[in-house]
Design a protein that fits this description.
The protein is an alpha/beta fold. About 60% of the residues lie in helices and about 15% in strands. It has helices spanning about 15-25, 25-60, 70-120, 125, 160-170, 175-185, 190, 215-240, 260-300, 315-340, 345-355, 365-370, 370-380, 390-400, 415-430, 450-455, 470-485, and strands spanning about 135-145, 195-200, 205-210, 245-255, 355-360, 410-415, 435-440, 460-465, 485-495. Helix 1 (about 15-25) packs across helix 10 (about 315-340) and helix 14 (about 390-400) crosses helix 15 (about 415-430). The relative contact order is 0.12. This is Capsular polysaccharide biosynthesis protein.
């Protein structure tokens, strides 16, 4: 699967996370609403008194009654009415352009899924049991007439390595593989996965290994490879030089191939990622269609402002102030949400940063939440800390099973040092990672020590906290770690 290129993509806004980010400001919104209601109510009282005085003076002097704020508002509403029509046309045009791009993206995504499914359906290697692989292996010892001439300044060149290289090249060539694939009515690319040819110039050994769904298939492929070896020998002797081949051994057995297990899992993960991407595109397509429908409905519902009636009173100003207080606080919360770019939920880490979530633990804020905050956390499906011990064991077990061969594991991230240390100790205490060395170090973007630690480990686990970690930081940490050739297994998220 291609490396994630989040830095070249526009970050989608998670509306659910945005809603909860605003909802958690309920105390500030209530306070602001009350304050603004009092201020606007007082303003309404004063304005009403001034307007009434102006009207009384105009009547007493026989002058025209001054225009009310409602009449002035009517003119402003007419301007907004025309602006709403223009905005509708602009928005609908933009939505349709996005729809066209989305449809093209869906076609490409479906094409990728079809290709991946075809490979899964036809690949023999994908169907093999990695814990019980039928294998046939044959070794040959290759010799030439090369001899070291004692006392001679000039020595004949030893072309044994060239012979080995020629066998390796010809046995894995298109002509060789397609010849064998035709015998099984199989495409060349699938047969190539069942054949391995390797050479060792130091020992002068040529090793051929074949795999199959059963012992008979693996053996038949090996027999055809041996025939092919005889077929190319004359060509090698003509172009490279005379040589002798001696079969050292041939074994037919079953074996465990962990690399095959990992390869099969990568293929399945790739298919899941492609299907999820298509689902996201389809959901976005529906959202865009609904946006166009909503824009059309809003325009249809837009009415020309009616002539203003004489109204006013303190109630309107109180209500206006109350609503304005809520809107201001909510608006500030929205701006902060968009500007901070903090990680909100585990689901967006894979799509935005290309990092899978190994597990979610409760952060300090979630553990101490009470009342309305606790209820909002529950609705948001944030952990409350009661299941952290079991989740820690699950995370440790996941790490152990994902990378059983890893001996040294680096735990790093941009969270507080004591929080990171506590996580490392909890993973060790779970008992799932006995025998493995867990190194804990701060963010690789801020700590030079982490750069040194990264060179010592086999795999890296990131840690992030919704209260402090941002998508940009996680992407930068992942990119830097991968630039050192280190695999980032996933992320432990505190929410």
């Amino acid at each position: 699967m291609d490396n994630y290129k989040a830095e070249n993509q526009e970050q989608e806004i998670d509306l659910v996370s945005l809603f909860f980010a605003v909802a958690h400001r309920y105390k500030q919104m209530a306070a602001a609403a009350v304050i603004c209601a009092v201020l606007f109510g007082g303003f309404g009282v004063v304005k009403g008194m001034l307007n009434q005085r102006a009207i009384d003076e105009a009547i007493a002097n026989g002058e025209e009654v001054p225009r009310t704020s409602a009449e002035q508002q009517y003119e402003e509403d007419m301007v907004e009415y025309r602006e709403a029509q223009t905005k509708h046309d602009t928005d609908v045009t933009s939505y349709k352009q996005q729809l066209n791009q989305n449809e093209a993206d869906q076609v490409r995504a479906q094409f990728d899924i079809d290709n991946a499914q075809e490979y899964i359906d036809k690949s023999v290697r994908q169907k093999l049991d990695p814990y019980n692989v039928y294998t046939s292996e044959t070794r040959f010892y290759i010799t030439t007439d090369y001899k070291i001439m004692p006392g001679m300044d000039y020595q004949n060149p030893d072309y044994t390595s060239a012979v080995l290289s020629a066998y390796n090249s010809l046995l894995t060539s298109h002509e060789s593989i397609i010849t064998i694939a035709d015998q099984f009515s199989m495409e060349e690319r699938y047969m190539r996965e069942l054949i391995s040819v390797s050479v060792d110039n130091d020992t002068r050994l040529l090793t051929i290994a074949t795999y199959g769904e059963d012992a008979d298939e693996a053996g038949r492929i090996m027999d055809l490879m041996l025939k092919r070896m005889e077929a190319v020998r004359e060509n090698i002797e003509t172009t490279v030089g005379d040589h002798n081949t001696k079969q050292v051994s041939r074994s037919d057995s079953t074996t465990v191939l962990t690399w095959l297990r990992d390869s099969q899992q990568d293929t399945r993960d790739n298919m899941t990622g492609l299907q999820n991407n298509l689902t996201d595109l389809q959901n976005k397509h529906e959202l865009l269609e609904k946006s166009i429908e909503t824009a059309d409905q809003d325009l249809a519902a837009q009415e020309k402002p009616a002539e203003p009636k004489q109204s006013g009173g303190v109630k309107k100003f109180v209500l206006t102030g109350f609503l304005l207080g809520i809107v201001v606080v909510a608006g500030v919360a929205v701006v902060r949400f968009l500007m901070e770019d903090k990680v909100c939920v585990s689901e967006d880490l894979q799509s935005s940063c290309g990092v899978g979530v190994l597990g979610t633990l409760a952060n300090a804020a979630s553990k101490s939440a009470k009342g309305m905050d606790a209820s909002l956390n529950k609705m948001e499906k944030r952990p409350d800390g009661s299941a952290d011990a079991e989740m820690t064991r699950l995370i440790a077990a996941t790490i152990r099973n994902r990378v059983p061969e890893a001996e040294n594991i680096l735990l790093t991230g941009d969270i507080a040092g004591d929080q990171l240390t506590a996580l490392g100790e909890a993973l060790k205490a779970s008992g799932e990672l006995d025998g493995k060395n867990i190194l804990v170090s701060g963010s690789i973007l801020q700590s030079s020590a982490t750069v040194s630690e990264a060179a010592k480990v086999d795999v890296v686990v990131l840690a992030a906290d919704c209260a402090v970690s941002t998508h940009a930081s996680l992407r930068a940490q992942k990119a830097k770690l991968e630039s050192f050739g280190k695999k980032v297994l996933g992320c432990v998220l505190y929410a």
